[in-house]
Amino acid sequence: IWLFCGDRPLPRERFNYLSGASIRPHVQLSLGTAQPVPRLQLRWQLERDGQMLDEGQKELLGPFQPGSVSELMVLDLEAPKVTEPETICLRVSVADPERAEIAKNCWTFFVYPEVQWPQLERLGLYDPGHHLTYLSELPLPVQVVPYEKLQDLPAASVLVASRWDEPLLQALKRGCRVLLLLGDGDPQLTLGVPFWRESLKIFGEHPLWNALPHEGYADVQFFGIASDQALHPEAMRNCFGSGEPVQEQLVLRRVDARHLTISDYISEYTLGSGKIVATTLRPQGGAGIQPATISENTAGQQLLAALLRHLAL
Fold first, then answer.
1. What is the Cα–Cα distance from 221 to 297, expressed in whole angstroms?
2. Spatial distance between the Cα atoms of 25 and 15, rounded to a whole number of angstroms
3. Res. 48: pLDDT tops 90
4. pTM for this structure?
5. In DSSP terms, which residues pair with 88 in a beta bridge?
6. What is the pLDDT of residues 188-214, one digit of tens each?
7. Which terminus of the chain is less hemmed in, N or C, by CB atoms within 10 Å?
8. pLDDT value at position 238?
9. What pLDDT sits at residue 1?
């Protein structure tokens, strides 16, 4: 991909796929036997709720050396056709035909129906720092709203923003629906914390989780949208001042297992007829080996579409 004036690797989605999409996992083996293995028997099974979707086997000629890492095969699989999110499991085993099984492993993949974008006449975009340029890759009627025009937004408008400002609060009080995307951090509203390490995730009851089902914990479907930023709950509450009462709904919370502190990855606030959903998750990916763009980020598109549908109701 040509990015920042240079050719760069294009990491792709690893764990989330659309209905009927191609899945091409690279099977590698780190061999820990005492002696070289002249040949291997590779077997794979793709399952959904105990139902076999695909299976196969192949004999691989070596020799395979101890202490080495070898790519054995690139599997060519197809995600099942689905009308709602489902999980599938890939099981792979490697055996020495003359001895016994050497290794086995399994991976969970998440399969989604085609992305359902909300039907909007326009989607306002307040992005003074140009953090949300990736929205241009999506089939959304984006219309840039400059700072001085925020006060003119009609009630019930849906707006995506990358920065909190006083005119945004006034738009919220008039009944606007705001999606505040802070995946790149905000020194006033977020703090830097690891997503996967030393923390518990608490999932609240929210329509979002119909589009991104979970088992009560953050599994690898979050790999492409995880963030090293989280919302500071007290700072977020202070944004709304001391006037009208604010209703807060927990969506995705982080409990720090070392310091026993609380922060949020997604929170929802209702102020009168206005509503704001704030999140530090990254629908665009782009961190480390996450998918490099939102067009490659299946979970990111599902997340963004579900939040916009919720706000557009």
1. 11
2. 10
3. yes
4. 0.92
5. 109
6. 999 999 999 999 999 999 999 999 999
7. C
8. 93
9. 64
Question: Which token pair is 67?
Answer: 């202490």
Number of residues that this document lists for the chain: 313
3-state secondary structure of 39: strand
Count CB neighbours of 3 within 10 A.
12
- Are 297 and 225 a contacting pair, CB within 8 Å? yes
* Residue 182 pLDDT > 80: yes
**Degrees (nearest 5) of the Cα angle 124, 207, 129?**
30
Which residues partner with 246 through β-bridges?
271
215 DSSP assignment: S
Both tokens assigned to 245: 């009462």
Q: Which amino acid is at 7?
A: D
Which residues, in sequence order, are CB contacts of 207 under 8 Å at separation 6+?
306, 310
- Helix intervals (H) in the chain: 166-173, 208-211, 233-238, 298-312
Maximum Cα–Cα distance for the chain, whole Å?
A: 76
Residue 48, amino acid: R
The secondary structure of 54-69, three-state, reads EEEEEEEEEEECCCCE
CA dist., res. 85 & res. 17, Å (int):
10
Tell me the one-letter amino acid at 138. Answer: L
Around 22, how many Cα atoms within 13 Å sit in the side-chain half-sphere?
Answer: 6
Angle at 195 between CA 136 and CA 124, to 5 degrees: 25
205/201 Cα distance (integer angstroms): 13
Amino acid (one-letter) located at 199: S
